[in-house]
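Bench notes, bay 3.
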Amino acid sequence: MNQYELALVINGKFADEDRDVALEKVKALIERFDGNIAKVDDWGKRRLAYEIQKVREGFYYFITFESEAEAPAQIEKRIRIMEPVLRFLIVKAEV
């Protein structure tokens, strides 16, 4: 199993419940592809470096997880179509 880190930016205009639902969906995706979530870092609401879809602020989350090598591609494929997610990036973590 490989270690990965998912950087996730959720639209700052969404209500708390909607944001929590989106985060839970992302966690469920990781677990669906046999991933084990090690840590979820909540950085809170921050100003974006540039405007994305007329949004200036977003909620930042960093999720550290372990999974097989094929899982990140499947997770990215499904996160890409989630409405509240502005940006995301999965990178392989250095062990």
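Next record in the batch:
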Amino acid sequence: MHRAKTVYDEITRPRRKRTPLRLYGPYLLAVMIPLLFLALFRAVRYHRPLVNTFIWKVTTPFKHAIARMCAPLPFAMAEVIWTLAVLFLLVLVGRSLFVAVRSLIDYLQGRKAHPLRRFLRRALAILSAGLIIYSGYSVTWGVNYYGDTFSQMSGLEGREMTAEELAALTGAFANKCNDLSGEVLRDENGLFIGQPDSFFDRSSGMYQNLYNEFPCLNLDEAQAKPMFYSRLMSWLGFTGFYFPFTGESLVNVDAPACLVPATILHELAHQRNVASEAEANFLAVIAGLHSDDAEFQYSSALLGYIHLSNALYSADRELWRSVSHTLNDAVQADLSYNSAYWNQFKTPAADAAEAVYTSFAQSYEQRDIMKSYGACVDLLAAYYLSEE
């Protein structure tokens, strides 16, 4: 016959001993699972056919599907996630420190509780959350660094140039900037102002002009979105960001307007599985120049000139001076304003953010695949200069 439990049973029943496995087992498991996943990722990352299959059959459909879900929202879901994640982290870290201090006080007063038990559980929870995010990023985006690059997909291989060839190509872009500088809207100070409210709408479909030449770019596209935290991104040194967890391309609209259209095209290139920043810059240049929109043409020409001019400055100062002197006042004003804007954010915080980003990229072995003046410049050379 079944006997109902009494209060006396609850009081007299011996409590099971809380072993380390019971205390920390779930947290250790939450750490071990993403670690094992990352180990698997590291083990297969150099198997190119397997990686390419995973990219195109698994992660690409996922990112495009979630991007379509987020596209109608008038805000960036990515920034909502960032905000909640930061708030959660602050609360968790704050509570963890409070628990650690309180447990230490209890321990010093002779109580039986282990002084760091609860703190260690929270620390393991923070570690597991970080590992889960990193492993998720590896699946949705980091894997692209080990798949085929744009150069390999398109067959366009960068070529080297002599300093004279580089000067000629830089001069051609300087002329493009001069010709287009009078066709864009400017403020009372002569600076490019454009029509920023319509930049994002007008960018849709601009890559279609490249589909015949580069069929690998013919993929779904979600319209880029302006960042709410644009000013903060400037302090951290970012002009844009592709967030693979939501498939959204975000653009810093606090940055000088002259390069915002080109930045939008850069971020849209990432939606097409172009992981390399240099290759995304190249595509931003040629996509804008192939459009019928004067403001996008000017912004892309300016981006191309900046990369070429920087390379020419390193190669031959005299040739650089001769080319830079050909720029008209309007173009020079835009370049000067862009430099002055970013110079104000040269702070320890920006340096730290750059160091973190560089280390993060290096963890995926991201590097230029060409060794001349940089991947973007080498691709511009291959695209615009005829082979000898």
